[in-house]
Specification:
Shape: globular
Order of helices and strands: EEHEHHEEEEEHEHEHHEHHEHEEEEH
Strand content: 25-35%
Largest sheet: 8 strands, antiparallel
Number of helices: 11
Structural class: alpha+beta
Distance between the termini: 57 Å
Number of domains: 2
Number of strands: 16
Strand order of the largest sheet: 2-1-4-5-8-9-3-10
Mean pLDDT: 90
Low-confidence stretches: none
Radius of gyration: 25 Å
Length: 327
């Protein structure tokens, strides 16, 4: 099974008060450890705001502990204990608040070995027991998962690898983001936004030879393909995209890239926020919320850039009824 070791510890820190409890042994049940991992990985994959990089050259306590564990100078449990103690010290020094469990999981695959570190929150709930009585209980609220760090331990030992540490943060983690990245010694090595915008710039140039309607549809389908790859945790391969998205241009996308943009990366990690504008235009104020497909612009929706106004045709039937007071 993929999860070979897993352990969790509790850390609570409020202003003027701090406590933590350390588990003394890894979890006994491999099945339960794998279930935890199976909950965390899809959540991690679906998150749009991941950051990709490696450890900074400067030594940090976390990096030192990690190397000691990999060198067998520390056991897995000792390693997790010392990391939590360092986290508790960080929270105290920077007067940060936190409450939850920190999960450490080692994942062994045929071609990869990874360490997952995840901040988990619990939620109160009710259950019906065997006697059909209500009981109070607590359970892991995966929707509130905080920091999730994935370290590729094989690539970490390869000096040629520049991307083996991936981080994502949950809602409510804003105050902890910078301190935790500093604690881990994280440094960015991939600018997903710049890579995505450069790629879509080439896509726009390629689609200029198409009729306007076909060009917009092509850009949208390319953006949707990239979005789906991101949701699956996959990189975008330019050759795979050329096979997956139909083009009405006379020149194949691969050939266009080879001639006009040979420096373009063959594979890149897509940034979802940069892709959204190629699928839908959206905007809101306190009084108005607008969202429409990019293909509608110039057809049923017209934009006057000088007057900064939109003209809408073919309104939804339900909206017309509301405006007429019929619904």
């Amino acid at each position: 099974m993929p999860a070979t070791d897993a352990i969790a510890h509790r850390l609570t820190r409020r202003t003027g008060e701090q406590s933590y409890s350390l588990r003394e042994t890894p979890f006994d049940s491999e099945t339960d450890s794998n279930r935890l991992l199976s909950e965390i990985k899809p959540l991690f994959t679906r998150r749009a705001s991941k950051r990709y990089g490696r450890f900074a050259d400067e030594a940090t306590p976390f990096k030192g502990l990690l190397i000691n564990w990999l060198d067998d100078s520390l056991g897995f449990t000792q390693f997790s204990h010392k990391v939590l103690e360092q986290l508790a010290m960080l929270m105290e020094q920077q007067d940060l608040e936190t409450d939850g469990h920190w999960l450490f999981v080692v994942e062994e695959l045929e071609a990869a070995r990874r360490l997952w570190i995840t901040s988990l929150k619990q939620k109160d709930g009710l259950l019906l027991n065997a006697d059909n009585d209500l009981q109070h209980t607590g359970y892991i609220d995966f929707a509130k998962t905080g920091l999730c760090a994935c370290i590729d331990l094989h690539d970490m030992g390869n000096p040629d690898k520049k991307r083996y540490l991936t981080l994502s943060f949950g809602f409510g983690d804003r105050a902890l983001q910078a301190p935790l990245m500093e604690f881990l010694g994280f440094t960015d090595t991939v600018d997903t936004q710049a890579d995505t915008e450069r790629f879509m710039e080439v896509v726009r140039d390629y689609s200029e030879a198409m009729p306007e309607e076909s060009a917009k549809r092509y850009q949208k389908e390319v953006a949707e393909f990239c979005m789906e790859q991101s949701k699956e945790g996959e990189m975008v391969n330019c050759h795979a995209l050329a096979d997956a998205v139909d083009s009405v241009a006379e020149v194949a996308f691969d050939d266009f890239v080879a001639e006009r943009a040979p420096e373009l990366k063959e594979e890149f990690i897509p940034d979802r926020s940069s892709l959204k504008k190629y699928i839908r235009y959206t905007g809101r104020t306190r009084e108005v919320s607008i969202s429409f497909s990019n293909e509608s612009l110039g057809k049923t929706i017209a934009f006057d850039p000088e007057a900064e106004t939109l003209t809408l045709k073919e309104l939804p039937a339900s909206l017309i009824k509301q405006l007429k007071g019929e619904a």
